[in-house]
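Lab notebook page, bench 4
Experiment: in silico fold of construct C2
Operator: M.H.
Input chain length: 102 residues
Purpose: comparison with the prior construct
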Amino acid sequence: MPQCPHQALQIVDGKVVWNAAVCEQCDTCLKRCPQHATPMAQSMSVDEVLSHVRKAVLFIEGITVSGGEATTQLPFVVALFTAIKTIRNCAISPVWWTVTAC
């Protein structure tokens, strides 16, 4: 897409596809989109999220689920935090939906 100065966006099968490897987080896509939608948003499975967590586990002190109304995705959040507890010594904090001590 010509709107992205870093060629991080493409149209594939009528959908915008974001390439994280070349994206510079300049937010040009957000500024150019009439709805200010981000092509960087993506759906992930619990395993996909865990893959990202495992890569950064030494640098993570906690995980918070937010954005919109997280409780509308309650089965996913429960499955995610159940899985996160299996990584090192993570524990669920009494603070709303926060995993601490990773």
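Observations: The chain has a mean pLDDT of 82. The longest helix spans residues 46-56.
Next step: discuss at group meeting.
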